[in-house]
Structure formats: structure tokens, C-alpha cells
């Protein structure tokens, strides 16, 4: 897994607001032939970001999001974020005029792109709609953009003792090192390691590792891996064990995610 690299200085934001050529919602589509990293930046508009053909990794502060499948990310205007788009992925970004479209949430949030919402967003990319048609479609879009009840968010620790361990776990989620092994490697007790992770991320070490593995497996599923392949890629010996962990974190089975 490739993490976004956050620069020391904030990249320049967009100097001028997006010009909405037809209405209050405007969509863009970008296809990436090679891995691309977005530096820290923000937009003066609300944004709904989603991916096709793989997964986009987005870092907002210390929160790591995986944008894949039908799970999009709502990014309120002015939110600073960075990201990584793997080669072969298509990103779809829909921008919402903040002067005329209310923020769905004040914080970033996962949003399910249902088939109807996806079709409407594609419908609004055309300039061939008259004012009435566009207004009606935009109103339905705003009704359909709703945060999902169980988002998958991974809080990244910054404590010098465990930050490096977290990045190593994400880089090799299939590694078999457990709590006791990591505690020995870091020279602390298992209880101290668990406490550090809970203080930094809101999860104990084992819970954080499970969430990290599931997030990495989502990338594999989004790229077309089978459920068994995705589970093995993040260290689960059996599909059933992987399914239990995946459902605990996401609220759905790997198969349900794969076929959304």
C-alpha cells in the first residue's frame, strides 16, 4: 500500500472558484496511466470523490480513507487533503457550488454511490440539459448524497514509537507479527503498546491491525481480486476468518462489497 506523502508546506489552493458552466453541480473524470500523488491541497467547493477500476487513498489530517467500489468520499469545501491514485484507476470528482448547495456534513464522510446516484452524476456532466431538467436532477442528487452509517476510517498514529510500525503494517499487511512480537521489537510491554495505539488512534493494537488489513483488502477487491485472494493478500489463512473480520469493520461481507 502506498501512503500519500504530506509535504511540509501546504500546496497552493485553487486561486479562483470553479466556474460551474451549467448549474450548481459539475463533474470531472480523470484516467491515470501511472501512479499519481496529490500533495496537500483544498478546493473552494464541496467535492464527492469516487474511483473506478481500483482504489484511491486519501489522507485527511491523520485519517486515512480508501475510496473504492461504491464508497465515495464527501470532502467539504476548504478541507485539506492529499491522495494517491494507482495506475489504471479512473477518478471521478463531482464539485458542488457551496453558495447554492448545502454541505451534507461539516467533516469528510463516506457516501454510497448507488446506481441511481452514479447515473445522475454522469447525466449532469452533459451540457445538453435545459435549466429545468438540470435543476430537478441536482435536487435528486442532493437527496441521494448521504453519509453511510459505518464508514471505514483508519486513524494514523504520530507518536514516534509506533508511527513507523503502523506504516510497516500497511506496507505488508500479510506479515504475521502480532501484538507480543511488535512489543518486543519496540522494546515495550504489550499493555503499553495497546495503550499507545488506543490513545493515538482510538483503537487497541489488534483492532487497528484488523482495520488496516481490511482497508488493504478493499484495494485488492476493487482491483478485481477474488474474496479468497484478497483475504490471503492481507494475511488471513481462511476465507471464513477474513469474512468475519471484514464484516466487523465494514458492516458487509467481502462478497457484498465486491459485487456492489
From TrEMBL:
Q: Which Pfam families match?
A: AraC_binding, HTH_18
GO MF, any single term: DNA-binding transcription factor activity
Q: Where is the HTH araC/xylS-type domain?
A: 160-260
Task: Tell me the domain of life.
Answer: Bacteria
User: Which controlled-vocabulary keywords does the entry list?
Assistant: DNA-binding, Transcription, Transcription regulation
Name the InterPro entries on file.
AraC-bd, Homeodomain-like_sf, HTH_AraC, HTH_AraC-typ_CS, RmlC_Cupin_sf
UniProt-recorded name of the protein: AraC family transcriptional regulator
Its lineage opens with:
Bacteria, Bacillati, Actinomycetota, Actinomycetes, Micrococcales
